[in-house]
Amino acid sequence: MTSEITLFVNPTAGRGRGAHAAQPAASALRAAGFSVRTVLGENAEDALTRARAAVEGGTGALIAVGGDGMANLALQAVAGTRTPLGLVAAGTGNDFARALGLPVRDPAAAGRLIAESLKGARLREVDLGRVNGTWFATVLASGFDSRVNDRGNRMRWPVGRFKYDLAMLAELAALRPLPYRITLDGGEVREIGATLVAVGNGSSYGGGMRICAGADLEDGLFDVTVVGECSRTTLLKVFPRVYRGTHLDHPVVTVHRAAKVELVAEGVTAYADGEPLGPLPLTAECVPAAVRVAIP
């Protein structure tokens, strides 16, 4: 493998932590003998074009510096190739890095681990989800949680995570079940009223909310968590348990496992890795061993 590798940096991740994380990560990689080139990009589209060019040009690895959004962007360049992905988690959520057991907000440690993995050619192949050619690593969200995202993204004030707390309160006030049709592996069809449906390749979203707590990145299957019809009171009781993953045994929650999931519902936008995918209906498939990740 070539010693020339590419740092793929989001300088705005985590309110500027991405920019600060790049330097110690690069220093650790250079100390290990790697030649490091940095890719920024004027916007997401330009950055992805540059990342794809680096992969096509034979870079030894693409190292995403930022949060889950940056990791998701990097996946679009490396998934399905032999180019390893490294993660320097410096965002707000960092759920993909957490699922992989990587350091969070310790860029020097992350850089050293990536260097150790690449020098020893010890890489882990993990599954990814794919929807219409777009890859995702953690959770595809739809329903109540995606509507919170929709509302929060429309708000200009306040800034930061607090606006999503306010968006959640507003969506709670408007809570109603949505009629879903869920098709698993092209056969089993379920028509239900649901508060939300989450399709998990990884176990968590939103910075540690373990909505699909049993999901395994290497089993070739999604965990599909369905929160059925429930009242505001029930949802408020169940919600705190999501951080521990203990919500899965609540009577209103069911979990299914499938390699392919079709979701149909009106007026619902899907998000994956926190990024908008588009409106339902959509079909997600789990692609085994779709990306090689630098983990010693």
Show the helix and strand layout.
Blueprint: E1 4-9, H1 13-31, E2 35-39, H2 44-56, E3 62-66, H3 68-78, E4 85-89, H4 95-100, H5 107-119, E5 123-131, E6 134-136, E7 139-143, H6 144-154, H7 162-173, E8 178-184, E9 188-200, E10 222-228, H8 232-238, E11 253-258, E12 260-264, E13 269-272, E14 275-279, E15 282-294
Parallel strand pairs: 1-2, 1-3, 3-4
Antiparallel strand pairs: 5-6, 5-15, 7-9, 7-13, 8-9, 8-12, 9-10, 10-11, 12-15, 13-14
Short description:
This protein has 296 residues and is of the alpha+beta class.
Radius of gyration: 19 Å
Strand percentage lies at 25-35%
Shape: globular
Output the CATH class name of the largest domain. Mainly Beta
What name is given to the CATH topology of the largest domain?
A: Tumour Suppressor Smad4
Give the helices and strands as they follow along the chain: EHEHEHEHHEEEHHEEEHEEEEE
Percent range for helical residues? 25-40%
Number of domains: 2
Count the strands? 15
Q: Any guess at the CATH architecture of the largest domain?
A: Sandwich
Average residue pLDDT: 91
Largest sheet: 11 strands, antiparallel
- The residue ranges in which pLDDT falls below 50 over 5 or more consecutive positions are none
Structural class: alpha+beta
The rounded distance between the terminal residues' Cα atoms is 16 Å
What's the total helix number?
A: 8
Protein described:
InterPro entries: ATP-NAD_kinase_N, Diacylglycerol/lipid_kinase, Diacylglycerol_kinase_cat_dom, Lipid_Phosphate_FormReg, NAD/diacylglycerol_kinase_sf, YegS/DAGK_C. Its cofactor is Mg(2+). Residues 1-135 form the DAGKc domain. This is Diacylglycerol kinase. By secondary structure, the chain is of the alpha+beta class. The protein has helices at 13-31, 44-56, 68-78, 95-100, 107-119, 144-154, 162-173, 232-238; strands at residues 4-9, 35-39, 62-66, 85-89, 123-131, 134-136, 139-143, 178-184, 188-200, 222-228, 253-258, 260-264, 269-272, 275-279, 282-294. Strand 5 and strand 6 (134-136) form a beta hairpin. The chain has 2 domains: 4-121, Rossmann fold (3-Layer(aba) Sandwich), CATH 3.40.50.10330; 136-288, Tumour Suppressor Smad4 (Sandwich), CATH 2.60.200. The protein contains 8 helices and 15 strands. Helix 1 (13-31) crosses helix 5, helix 2 (44-56) crosses helix 3 and helix 6 crosses helix 7. The model has no long low-confidence stretch (mean pLDDT 91).
